[in-house]
């Protein structure tokens, strides 16, 4: 706040934007009254001279998978339609403690499963750049909310690209920190060894500010790293690599390939080293990802049984087993059911070793290979997606949709931080990003490199 | 791996899901596609590789043994679709 405006005025501004863009369907609920009350309270505290929180008056939206006490959270599913959080996620608590204003909860793919936001039980979200196109997913509402100026920052979740891919499709910045950077307490679980809360914003500084507030050790999630990410020493030139076969991949849009190659030339022209590395596991990362995440999902989603909370089939003649089956069959959407079935398959007796254990072994190979890469390089450059935003209803085949995750799931499989930077546009004016990844627990390094790349891209050099 | 009706039925039972007859063909097709897709992993030799089980390097992250992060019974029952003042209710399980 620069003294020119107030929190109340800021909230009013964003509420107007939200109501003007309601047809984009980015929000499942907007907290008009509460946001204005919080803003008034913050204005009063500021005038009385209280020290300001680090996010004083920052207007935030949160994806509908992050718990916020006494507010609804539904994972964009019918199964949780009337569920009210009885506690807040650690990330939510930390936002509020540093005086952010949460203005609403955002539409997404059901249980964060999807990459187009067409799997929401509450309808698709539209991309503000071209309303016939998808915004990406699963954090589609969170991306569009930032893209269309309906909030300053969004919290999403990223299990296989669900923050970076919609950020790419919407022309904004989206970051997934390292596994264990931000507490998952209060994040509705999809695949627990992959899930991370991520941040969507218009610029890297905003991402960093929010990350500083919400990351770090938490008594309620023992997988969070206990030591903070170290601050890297600045160097004059950096060592980047890219996967040769990724930039030559048959599924990659030629414009994306050309732009990234051109940008690599620019980087080397500035004295940085950019080298190709052979990555022969590329075509195995998506299958590995789908074995492991569906297995974890089938286990995590077994809790939706119509007993403790959520939707319940009302047939009084049902026995307990029928109650479970009918509740789940009516409550879950088709994509969620498909993934539960596949996960049940890879975990079932007779198939467990051949599919699940096999994928855990490939995950080890991927981690080992990644450690070797970062012995030599500061960061990896990849596309975020193989194509820019496609039309709503255009993609139907589940495997075709899975394959589009080829560049993003890698970071979740090996636990490293990754960011999508909005550097490019194609001839139709559709944005696409560059993805940058650093070694595990080096998100601050990743953010400083991100700024360097953005400056280089837009400095006109 | 061939996906047949029997496998779909078995997985549905395990996952506590049911499918209408008209949905089944689609589910079978999708499952067949997805399983063929993940079978690509068989091309890789993973002999002697230890499966990776944990993504966090942190070991024995403990805190003081105090009641924290807990909710009251009322809060626990708040979202239950069918309950009395103390318990979740389910269809009768034991019949005489």
Automatic annotation (TrEMBL), chain A:
Keywords: ATP-binding, Ligase, Nucleotide-binding, Protein biosynthesis, Transferase. One of its GO terms (molecular function) is ATP binding. It catalyses: L-glutamyl-tRNA(Gln) + L-glutamine + ATP + H2O = L-glutaminyl-tRNA(Gln) + L-glutamate + ADP + phosphate + H(+). GO terms for biological process: translation. Residues 9-447 form the Amidase domain. Belongs to the amidase family. GatA subfamily. Heterotrimer of A, B and C subunits. Allows the formation of correctly charged Gln-tRNA(Gln) through the transamidation of misacylated Glu-tRNA(Gln) in organisms which lack glutaminyl-tRNA synthetase. The reaction takes place in the presence of glutamine and ATP through an activated gamma-phospho-Glu-tRNA(Gln). This is Glutamyl-tRNA(Gln) amidotransferase subunit A.
UniProtKB/TrEMBL annotation, chain B:
GO terms for biological process: glutaminyl-tRNAGln biosynthesis via transamidation; regulation of translational fidelity; translation. Keywords: ATP-binding, Ligase, Nucleotide-binding, Protein biosynthesis, Transferase. Pfam families: GatC. It comes from the Bacteria. SUPFAM superfamilies: Glu-tRNAGln amidotransferase C subunit. Its EC number is 6.3.5.-. It catalyses: L-aspartyl-tRNA(Asn) + L-glutamine + ATP + H2O = L-asparaginyl-tRNA(Asn) + L-glutamate + ADP + phosphate + 2 H(+); L-glutamyl-tRNA(Gln) + L-glutamine + ATP + H2O = L-glutaminyl-tRNA(Gln) + L-glutamate + ADP + phosphate + H(+). Transmembrane segments: none annotated. GO terms for molecular function: asparaginyl-tRNA synthase (glutamine-hydrolyzing) activity; ATP binding; glutaminyl-tRNA synthase (glutamine-hydrolyzing) activity; transferase activity. Gene3D superfamilies: Glu-tRNAGln amidotransferase C subunit, N-terminal domain. Allows the formation of correctly charged Asn-tRNA(Asn) or Gln-tRNA(Gln) through the transamidation of misacylated Asp-tRNA(Asn) or Glu-tRNA(Gln) in organisms which lack either or both of asparaginyl-tRNA or glutaminyl-tRNA synthetases. The reaction takes place in the presence of glutamine and ATP through an activated phospho-Asp-tRNA(Asn) or phospho-Glu-tRNA(Gln). Belongs to the GatC family. Heterotrimer of A, B and C subunits. This is Aspartyl/glutamyl-tRNA(Asn/Gln) amidotransferase subunit C. The gene is gatC.
